[in-house]
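Technical note accompanying the year-one report. For the benefit of new consortium partners, we illustrate the data format agreed upon in the data management plan: each record pairs a sequence with a structure-token string. No post-processing was applied to the example shown here.
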Amino acid sequence: MLNISLDEEAEKYLVEILSQERTSSNELIKKLLRNHLQSFPAKKSVLERMGGVPQHLLCVGNLSERDTRREIIAARIRASHQRET
């Protein structure tokens, strides 16, 4: 539970809003906090902050297999060396 102290002006605002909304102060505070929280932009995931999922990794088949990853890496290294010569 949270206890807060309001100055006279804030208390007048609260009483006025409560009379118009016809709700309890607990429900009003919850509603205001929920609305305020929803106004913040959603946090980006790590991948989104880094520019998204790398598309060049998705064009290759089953990268969960170690042998497949080794073969792909070896092929890219060979191709890179052939271009250099």
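Partners are asked to follow this layout when depositing records. The mean pLDDT is 85.
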